[in-house]
């Protein structure tokens, strides 16, 4: 009996093993639910496994005074299918990353410069947040709303790592106000006055 059970265990642990070393994203093809299809291995080069987008500083001249430079499968084809990606954050004094979530990834943030306040909200609506300094690391569990803002007097920087090659991002404010859902419906489901909804739709590009 034991040899049979052992054989089943071995088969179950090897049946999902990778059948090739990597799956460099074919960016010319459409992405599906599981990511991009694989580029022909004969056309893969070392450059597919190199990302140089962090060489230049990001543009923080925007409303939130923040630049996030992603290195996911869209920008870094070599990570496609590997369950990992990274991003860089630069945020000026008073800058922030508003409430958002990553539907398909857990995120780890490492502060590399300055001070940040970062936190997340659990599905039980419990809030966890703390002031972080250079060298501190925080984890945001998959799918939960989270945020951060610059709490110091200068530029703050961080590196993010995700448990997905394409973590996707949904900004809460744009989900509510950057869409074509009628203002009266948005107001009804958020308990906000319709005029307030129209104001924010106007700011974030939603139709009123």
TrEMBL record:
Residues annotated as signal peptide: 1-17
GO cellular component: apoplast
UniProt feature coiled coil, ranges: none
The protein, known as: Germin-like protein
Binding site for Mn(2+): 100, 102, 107, 146
Residues binding oxalate: 102, 107
PANTHER family linked: GERMIN-LIKE PROTEIN SUBFAMILY 3 MEMBER 3
Disulfide bonding pattern of the chain: 23-38
Pfam families: Cupin_1
Family: Belongs to the germin family.
Record localization: Secreted, Extracellular space, Apoplast
Main location group: secreted
GO MF term list: manganese ion binding
Segments forming domain Cupin type-1: 52-198
Record keywords, A-Z: Apoplast, Disulfide bond, Manganese, Metal-binding, Secreted, Signal
SMART domains in UniProt: Cupin_1
InterPro entries the UniProt entry points to: Cupin_1 (IPR006045), Germin (IPR001929), Germin_Mn-BS (IPR019780), RmlC-like_jellyroll (IPR014710), RmlC_Cupin_sf (IPR011051)
